[in-house]
Amino acid sequence: MAPPCNTLLLLSFFVFSLSIFPADSIHNHHHHHPLDPLSLHELDRVRTVLTASHHNISFHYVGLDEPDKSTVLSWHSRHTAAKPPPRRALVIARLNHKTRQFIVDLSTHSIVSDKIYGGSGYPILTFEEQTAANSLALSYAPFRASVSKRELKVEEIVGLSFTVGWYGEEGRSRRIVKVMFCYLDGTVNLYMRPIEGITVTVDLDEMKVIAYLDRLMVTVPKANGTDYRESQQKPPFGPRLKGITVVQPDGPSFTVQGHQISWGNWEFHLGFDMRAGPIISVASIYDVEQQKRRRVLYRGYISELFVPYMDLTEEWYYRTFFDAGEYGFGLCAMPLQPLTDCPQNAVFMDGYVTAQNGSPVNMTNVFCIFERYAGNIMWRHTEAGIPGKLITEARPEVSLVVRMVSAVGNYDYIIDWEFLQSGSMKLSVGLSGLLEVRGTGYSHVDQINEEVYGTLLAENTLGAHHDHFITYHLDLDVDGDANSFVKTHLQKKLVTDNRSPRRSYWTVMSETAKTESDAKIQLGLKPVELLIVNPNKRTKVGNYVGYRLIPGSTVGPLLSDDDYSQRRGAFTKYNAWITPYNKSEKWVAGLYTDQSRGDDTLAHWTLRDREIQNKDIVMWYTVGFHHVPYQEDFPLMPTISGGFELRPSNFFESNPVLKVKPPTKVKWSSCPTLMTDLP
User: Fold this and answer.
1) Annotated catalytic, 411?
2) Percentage helix, strand, coil for the chain under 3-state DSSP, each rounded to 5
3) N- to C-terminal Cα distance for the chain?
4) pLDDT digits (tens, 9 = 90+) for 361-399
5) Which one from 36, 273, 323, 475 is the annotated catalytic residue?
6) Are residues 308 and 569 in contact, defined by beta-carbon separation less than 8 angstroms?
7) With a threshold of 0.90, does the pTM exceed it?
8) Helices 127-139 + 141-149 axis angle, to 10
9) Distance (Å, rounded) from C-alpha 359 to C-alpha 363?
10) Is 318 a catalytic residue?
11) Alpha carbons 544 and 537: distance in angstroms, whole number
């Protein structure tokens, strides 16, 4: 992460187009679901209601005020006949230098709650105030003098607004950003040309410069070799591959009604939020043997992305970003490009947000939905042990993917929710985009004789060490909402008697967490499996039905617990936490994250050590990356991915895809099938 994301600057206001699925086979007859995100018309109604009684109000977050879970589930069980619950909007705004939290009833066009927030922290920054702060800094006379001293062209300079964190200051703080600068002049890759040493501090409420520092002069890295646009590349080029595509002559196998998606044995709701991005809700799977639909996930989304940099210099030490809570992960969603971001068989969905003045904005193509077949095998077996027979059975793996890309400044996050016919959900995040680099006088590693907090990637260019921690909110409802968390430890056992010539084996020891403190766990220290089970439901042979979390690589923070940045990001200390369901506990870094002090985080909530056994519980899981930059990351990074799988574990009586029919074969006469057919 680094600021800013400029989505709203690319979009026009009041685009009331609700025709969001271009494919003829996708049904878009909208039926209001209680968890549907606010429509453009509803967002405009919110603006009308609030601006009628509050002038000069600044909108920082507008989203659905989520109905009570019991209400949603009751409606969902009989939604063909039931009337949806009243629609309400949650609004976080700034008014007269104070943070206000409103609830607006959309049916009565009235404000039903108005609270002033007086604690630490501030709401998401708006694009408009970041742009204003950058412009103010660029026109500031002392800054212009510093530019002239460096013999740079002011018209080629871009300003970037950085949040400042918290480092032990007492009392109320001002809502500020520090504006830093990059240089174009021969490239669009502004992040590879930082102007070091200059910092302009801007008060966002007063919109004025309150501090200026020109600390040192450092060589600006060269533009040569930094432009990543295809049109700007020069020979030699790598070999070009032949064309490849995905063809579905009969159209997609999924249907969409409003925000409800059905595919194979899966049904789920897809929503968009300006802070979280994609939200998957009320996901259920059809059990062929039981002939009924069974609940799996009530609500899942990314709660926060914590990105602390490890550079301790004056212009860098405070770069410890919370991309969702400070900048808005959904706000930074980018229009997905057909054939590059998503395959040819994808269809697209828009998302809606508000500008700072409350005007609704249509963000086109924030999601793509497509069926993926990449040659993977769902299951197979060859039996050669029966005399005179060779039996081979295999099934191709086809999955459904929901994708969003959020470009939070220099980083592009590729977020996938992948649904498998086996009942698994694979959640992945891909990191691409640009490194955040620091200018330096060094041109070769042999010159370096000090701590530089990064890797020399090119002449005068240091790539800073940093982390990415992506924390998911996973409200699993495994066959119902009364669940328990089980840690299954794999333990070595020594054979001390003569019952076997073996000397050792391993066995499993299961531990059901009773309270929040029992549940939190750092993975990678000992072998363990993490399960959410329904202690009230068993299979025919007596096992508790459940889902287990299968981690990818396990990464945890290396910062000390008393580091101010880590106090704010304390939710990353453990890979997994379990809490009892609480509608108000949504954001692991706190509702007001900018300049927060760590007093409203997941780590703080769990100090109550609440009971979680046989309760409606929520799992919080963090995917982590330690990023040591390498030269291959310059000037643009190849994607690196991580994630995890939620997999049925004694949920079904047997393999649920044993009887799955493979997709209809597509005849393609020009497709070679043997090596001898290839040129």
Assistant:
1) yes
2) 15, 40, 45
3) 46
4) 999 999 999 999 999 999 999 999 999 999 999 999 999
5) 323
6) yes
7) yes
8) 60
9) 13
10) no
11) 6
